[in-house]
């Protein structure tokens, strides 16, 4: 969805709009990623994982092709918005597939791998797009994105399988039929769609999911704010980066995301082994404290470096710390939520995805004006304080609430 983040200046010149206005072409797509995930939940439960994985991928490929061929900002933004609506399904469907395929002990490790792969995307994608755009133009860059969607669609067709457990005694349908949702679940479609439509609304307001969702909203907002605005700063004094240099800066985000993966990998193993005899699901949430501190330090480093016009290494280091916080926090909360509500994996995944994308959508509208009014140093200092306070106010109540429950709770509560 942020593939074009390094191309907004060229697009602005092409369409005759301001760079700030050109950058908002991503915002509606980011918002609709959240709603698209919610809409997908009943369909995934009624028709199975595979068809709701495959066909939105096909539609998304066509939407990116439409954006590539667009001749004005409005048409381009429309196609990009629809890309977000349909293209969000892999962010949602991964958690239920992990639930289907792996044991409970393996869930945190697999969530860590899955979560890191799609959280690296917002930084790796714009870097590749910028490199291509620097050598050709933005349309060629989006043509490459269309081809990437085509390749991924073919991979789903060739290697994707239905992972949903069919009821005992019912045989699997043929592979061709499974692409169309025939025989994947063995459930009545109408009643299943209605049941899960109601269920997802109920679970949005479940106390643990509501509180941890607020944590995700805050910890995802500021990294996406950096992702969508950093090019404006890098192309301006004192940095004056060209397109290649600005695109290369995105690898700081990639490094941070991979470091967040490493932290989540070791922490989840350590916390489980240390408390295996008196295990509580809520202990997973202790995995947010270090990442939140890392994010706060990163926001301060990034903001103060830019405020005083210091070397770009400070920006890169700050961004690395911010992304360590983002990835490790989301992984910890996703592992907790799946372990807490294993039979609602699809629902939980969509809800967490919704909070994540709402934060990413909102920041593009208020952050530029906020920086212009109060200055970048103050803004990022306030953001660091918000991250810490929000984590304490949302995670601590869930930990206290968990202590009042049974020593081990893994089912619906």
Task: Spell out the key features of this protein.
disordered C terminus, MFS_dom, 17 helices, Major facilitator superfamily (MFS) profile domain-containing protein, 77% helix, Growth Hormone, Chain: A, mainly alpha, single chain, 413 residues
What do these coordinates show?
The chain has 17 helices and no strands. It has 413 residues and is mainly alpha-helical. It is globular and about 65 Å long. The two termini are 35 Å apart. Residues 407-411 have low confidence and may be disordered. It is a multi-pass membrane protein. Residues 1-413 form the Major facilitator superfamily (MFS) profile domain. One of its GO terms (molecular function) is transmembrane transporter activity.
Short description:
By secondary structure, the chain is mainly alpha-helical. It is built from 17 helices and no strands. It has a single domain, classed as MFS general substrate transporter like domains (Growth Hormone, Chain: A, Up-down Bundle), CATH 1.20.1250.20.
Number of strands: 0
Distance between the termini: 35 Å
The best one-word shape is globular
Approximate helicity band: over 70%
The CATH level-2 architecture is identified as Up-down Bundle
């Amino acid at each position: 969805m942020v593939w074009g983040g390094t191309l907004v200046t060229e697009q602005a010149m092409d369409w005759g709009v301001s760079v700030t206005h050109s950058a908002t072409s991503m915002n509606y797509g980011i918002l609709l990623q959240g709603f698209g995930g919610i809409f997908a939940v009943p369909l995934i439960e009624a028709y199975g994982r595979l068809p709701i994985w495959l066909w939105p991928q096909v539609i998304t490929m066509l939407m990116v092709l439409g954006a590539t061929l667009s001749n004005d900002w409005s048409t381009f933004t429309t196609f990009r918005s629809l890309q977000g609506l349909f293209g969000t399904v892999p962010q949602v469907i991964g958690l239920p597939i992990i639930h289907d395929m792996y044991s409970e002990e393996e869930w945190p490790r697999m969530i860590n791998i899955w979560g890191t792969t799609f959280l690296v995307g917002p930084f790796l994608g714009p870097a590749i797009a910028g490199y291509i755009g620097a050598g050709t133009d933005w349309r060629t860059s989006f043509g490459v994105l269309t081809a990437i969607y085509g390749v991924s669609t073919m991979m789903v067709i060739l290697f994707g399988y239905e992972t949903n457990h069919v009821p005992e005694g019912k045989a699997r349908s043929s592979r061709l039929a499974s692409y169309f949702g025939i025989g994947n679940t063995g459930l009545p479609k109408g009643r299943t769609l209605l049941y899960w439509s109601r269920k997802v609304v109920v679970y949005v307001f479940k106390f643990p999911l509501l509180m941890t969702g607020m944590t995700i909203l805050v910890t995802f907002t500021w990294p996406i704010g950096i992702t969508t605005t950093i090019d404006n700063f890098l192309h301006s004094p004192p940095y004056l980066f060209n397109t290649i240099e600005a695109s290369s800066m995105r690898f700081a985000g990639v490094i941070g995301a991979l470091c967040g993966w490493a932290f989540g990998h070791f922490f989840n193993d350590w916390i489980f082994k240390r408390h295996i005899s008196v295990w509580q699901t809520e202990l997973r949430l202790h995995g947010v404290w270090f990442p939140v501190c890392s994010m706060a330090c990163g926001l301060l480093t990034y903001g103060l470096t830019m405020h005083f016009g210091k070397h770009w290494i400070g920006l890169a280091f700050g961004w690395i710390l911010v992304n360590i916080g983002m990835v490790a926090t989301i992984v910890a909360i996703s592992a907790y939520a799946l372990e807490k509500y294993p039979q609602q994996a699809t629902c939980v995944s969509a809800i967490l995805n919704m909070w994540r994308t709402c934060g990413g959508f909102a920041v593009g509208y208020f952050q530029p004006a906020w920086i212009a009014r109060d200055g970048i140093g103050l803004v990022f200092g306030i953001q660091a304080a918000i991250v810490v306070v929000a984590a304490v106010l949302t995670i601590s109540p869930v930990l206290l609430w968990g202590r009042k429950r049974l020593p081990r709770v893994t089912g619906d509560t």
